[in-house]
Specification:
- It is a single chain.
- This protein folds into 3 domains: 226 residues, Rossmann fold, CATH 3.40.50.300; 149 residues, P-loop containing nucleotide triphosphate hydrolases (Rossmann fold); 74 residues, RRM (RNA recognition motif) domain (Alpha-Beta Plaits), CATH 3.30.70.330.
- The chain has a 7-stranded parallel β-sheet with strand order 4-5-3-6-7-2-9, with helices on both faces.
- Helices cover 30% and strands 19% of the residues.
């Protein structure tokens, strides 16, 4: 079933029928008054150790300690604040030590967010079986994982609805539903699939909704009942205090101005946001012709290409990522120094989410609005300093890392330790020549010092990893 256009659900005023607009029912100051609820079968300290987290933040504490026995929960908090752990802990409160049926379903707007949640859930080390379902790879792989019912399933609306129709997901025991970044799912046109999924959950008792936006309408089909709302969104958000807002005025050619800006930025990490995927691809070709090393990322790319682009950006093989608003939320990409709005976002919310990729974890960041001859500064940008760029505009230094692709992953019983051993023992690399390693289900991406790549590829040409002949190549 395809997505159902939003106007099938919205009324003539543009609102969702039967909606309730989120308003703060619990202030941050009140969170300390909640009676603590312990995790039934797990030691919190052990779970945090598995994640290498010393302690919960204030928002996570509130989510864990809120007594919402008779209510649903709405959690409002900024992008990058740790909402995944905040809703996973209440999920664990409502699960048995050993689950033989599926109790919890988590719906997310993007594949990357689904994979990120799966990773955090696995790292908690609870022993619960977790399955991740999303488009862009073979459905049969997921079908095999669903034969033995997982305790928790996380996925995108389209793929989850497809599995439910086919009978691959048994819904009769699902009691807890999490809609993470649910407003983004609605914005992307998944209302039809979400309605279908929720209607297929006969035993649904609890709902957790998360968003990084406060003024959100909740559609009637979500079935939200009495609600406790934890609102950790602030008007004077820390990000605003740490972000330096600048404008660059392009007199004639915005692409040339972007080129000059990226040359000025150099090797500092930057995300360039566009409003449309077509613009992303055209802009990529233009920057490539000018010699700017970068990657691009949008929702119509194949999964391997999406994985490759994000891995290269995370591990420092490229310092610039061109993207749509798909990357504005839900992606774990730390240490972004510059956010560049090549095209001005349509709304303040989109602007805020884009900017939320920088100035995280108390770091500082710079937001740049690139204005063409006929562009103007939007009303929601209160103050910005004009940035005058002066030549020479020398190309940024080439990154020190190159990303290699290995066609073996978790499902082949390959892990990071295996890959390090393979590259050091058979490839002759030193450990300091190996950067970030990301292992997917059937593949892995590893950053290797650029100066060592050609020699390494020759050395491991006929080598074996886990007794399997493997072709290592530079990630495309």
């Amino acid at each position: 079933m395809g997505t159902i256009p939003e106007n099938k659900f919205r009324n003539k005023n543009g609102k969702w029928p039967g909606v309730s607009t989120i308003k703060p029912s619990v202030s941050v100051a009140e969170c300390s008054t909640f009676a603590p609820m312990s995790l039934k079968h797990f030691e919190l300290s052990s779970l945090l150790n598995n994640l290498n987290i010393p302690a919960l933040n204030e928002m996570q504490e509130a989510a864990l300690h809120t007594d919402w026995t008779e209510k649903d929960m709405v959690l409002l908090s900024a992008t990058g604040s740790g909402k995944t752990l905040a809703f996973l802990l209440p999920v664990l409160q409502h699960m048995e030590a050993v689950e033989k049926v599926t109790r919890t379903l988590i719906i997310v707007p993007s594949r990357e967010l689904a994979l990120q949640i799966e990773q955090v859930a696995r790292r908690l080390g609870t022993g619960h079986k977790i399955s991740c379902c999303y488009g862009g790879h073979k459905r049969e792989i997921e079908e095999n994982n669903l034969i033995q019912a997982p305790a928790l399933i996380v996925g995108t609306p389209g793929r989850l609805a497809d599995h439910i129709r086919r009978g691959n997901i048994h819904t009769e025991h699902i009691e807890l539903l999490v809609l993470d970044e649910f407003d983004k799912s609605l914005e992307l046109g998944f209302a039809g699939e979400m309605t279908e999924i929720i209607e297929a959950l006969p035993q649904l008792k609890k709902r957790i909704l998360t968003s990084a936006t406060q003024a959100v309408d909740i559609p009637e089909f979500v079935g939200l009942g009495d609600t406790v709302t934890l609102n950790f969104l602030k008007e004077d958000d820390t990000v605003d205090k740490l972000v330096d807002i600048k404008t660059v005025r392009a007199e004639i050619d915005k692409t040339q101005s972007l080129f000059e800006l990226l040359c000025h930025i150099g090797s500092r990490s930057s995300i360039v946001f566009c409003n449309h995927k077509e613009t992303v691809e055209v802009l990529s070709e233009q920057l490539k012709a000018r010699g700017i090393i970068h990657e691009y990322y949008h929702g119509s790319m194949e999964q391997r290409d999406r994985d490759s682009a994000l891995c290269k950006f995370r591990n420092g093989s490229v310092h610039c990522l061109l993207t749509t608003d798909l990357a504005a939320r839900g992606l774990d990409i730390p240490n972004i120094r510059y956010i560049i709005h090549y095209q001005i976002p349509h709304t303040k919310d989109i602007y805020t989410h884009r900017n939320g990729r920088t100035a995280r974890m108390e770091a500082s960041g710079t937001v740049v609005l690139l204005l063409g001859p006929h562009d103007y500064l939007p009303d929601y940008v209160e103050a910005a300093e004009e940035w005058k760029l002066h030549p020479p505009f020398d190309l940024p230094e080439k990154p020190k890392w190159t990303t290699l692709y290995i066609p073996l992953g978790k499902k082949n019983k390959v892990n990071k330790i295996d890959i390090v051993g393979f590259l050091t023992h058979q490839g002759g690399l030193k450990k300091e020549d190996i950067g970030l390693i990301e292992v997917k289900d059937f593949s892995a991406f590893v950053a290797v010092r650029r100066s060592q790549v050609n020699h390494l590829l020759h050395t491991v040409k006929d080598a074996r990893l886990k007794n399997k002949k493997v072709k290592v190549e530079v990630a495309k």
